[in-house]
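User: I'm preparing a small set of examples for a lab meeting where we compare how different chains pack in three dimensions. I only have the primary sequence for this one, and I'd like the structure in token form so I can line it up with the others. Please keep the answer compact; I'll paste it straight into my notes.
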Amino acid sequence: MVDLPGGGKLSHAAIYGQDGGMWAQSAGFPALQPDQAKILVTGFSDPGAVAAAGIKIGDKKFISVGGVPGECLRGRKGASGCTIKKTNTAMVIGIYDEGVQGGDCNIIVENLGDYLIGQNI
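Assistant: Understood. Below is the structure token output for the 121-residue chain.
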């Protein structure tokens, strides 16, 4: 995986279709279940959908800590966290562990998402 601006690397990364289908993922990525994908897609337009139950990615659960409505979701659990960027047809997901700054994850995931939006993906 790519080096992050502040050092370190994402623990896991993936691109999933908004229908929950896996397009690409790193080794060991916690498999996103179809019902989890549906909740994430709903969460982009209705942040309350993930606020109460948290952001669930496979067997990992993060507390929703905001994001940008309609564009991205962000979650934390202790020193780890996630960023999920919505594109036209997909979701770019990055998960980081201790030693990585959440802002670095945001930059990488959101920039890739913006690139894919520019490619009409």
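A couple of notes for your slides: The first strand starts at residue 12 and ends at 17. The chain is about 25% helix and 35% strand.

User: Perfect, thanks.
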